Amino acid sequence: MFESLQDRLGSILNGLTGRGALSEADVSAALREVRRALLEADVALDVVRSFTEKVREKAVGAEIVKSIKPGQMVVKIVHDELIAMLGSEGVTIDLNAAAPVVIMMVGLQGSGKTTTTGKIAKRLTARDKKKVLMASLDTRRPAAQEQLRQLGVQTGVDTLPVIAGQSPTDIAARAVQAAKLGGHDIVILDTAGRTHIDEPLMIEMAEIKRKSNPHEILLVADALTGQDAVNLARNFDERVGITGLVLTRMDGDGRGGAALSMRAVTGKPIKLIGVGEKMDELEEFHPRRVADRILG
Ligand code: GDP
Question: From atom 2 of ligand 1, which residue's Cα is the shortest distance away?
Answer without folding.
Answer: 110
